Amino acid sequence: MQKIRIVLFLIAFVLLASFAVASNFEEALQAHDSGDFKKAHKLWLIDAEQGDAAAQVNLGAMYNLGHGVPQDYKESVKWYRLAAEQGNAQAQTKLGIMYNLGKGVPQDYKASVEWFRLAAEQGDAHAQYNLGLMYLNGYGVVQSYEDAYAWWVVAAANGSESASGNMRVAQGGQMTAKQIEKGQQLAKKIWTRLGN
User: Fold this and answer.
1) Is residue 154 within 8 Å of 185, Cβ to Cβ?
2) Which of 22-26, 27-31, 78-82, 149-153 is predicted least confidently?
3) Residues 91, 80 contacting (CB under 8 angstroms)
4) Is the N end or the C end of the chain the one with fewer CB atoms within 10 Å?
5) Among candidate residues 47, 68, 122, 112, the one with its CA nearest the CA of residue 90
């Protein structure tokens, strides 16, 4: 009988702790949205230290922008990386941006492409758009207008207006009809690979 009480107590404790983490996140979000960045930081830090990827992304953003904390790109990268390594696509995209710009880490286009690709393969339109830019400019990859166009087609299908704009520019003369056709074929392959 005593063992059952202990087990029930432990189950109740775990459930309450889980609820507390969830309510921390929502309370932190409300605090952030109302401009109380210090409170948001305090609450998200609790969740982030427990491994909550969404809280880690938000902490990374706070350090990146200097909201409620001194702007610190290295600290931003730390939190983005923790979430990115858990597979969080938003964090992977943000980490790709940090490597692309050399903020908090040495500028490294290959690392940027790797993080963009991980997020893009999960369907993150922002990462897909940025991966297209990397191919357009030949940053971290062999320059390929066709691959750039393909990733923009996929990003546009996922709601990226920036990608749609780049496609219109490419169609307006930056790319040949043959390059566009090849880009569309590559986009179909990517789209299928992503399970769409």
Assistant:
1) no
2) 22-26
3) yes
4) N
5) 122
Residue 107 is which amino acid?
Q
Query: What is 87-196's CATH number, 2.60.40.10, 1.25.40.10, 1.20.140.10, 3.20.20.70?
Result: 1.25.40.10
- Residue located via tokens 């941006």: 97
d(CA 196, CA 188): 9
Structure tokens given for 166: 């780049």
| Residue 93, C-beta contacts closer than 8 angstroms, at least 6 positions apart | 115, 116, 119, 124, 126, 127, 130
For residue range 75-118, list pLDDT tens digits in order: 999 999 999 999 999 999 999 999 999 999 999 999 999 999 99
- The rounded distance, in Å, linking the Cα atoms of 16 and 184 is 51
Does the pTM of the predicted model rise above 0.90? no
Residue whose tokens read 């990386």:
81
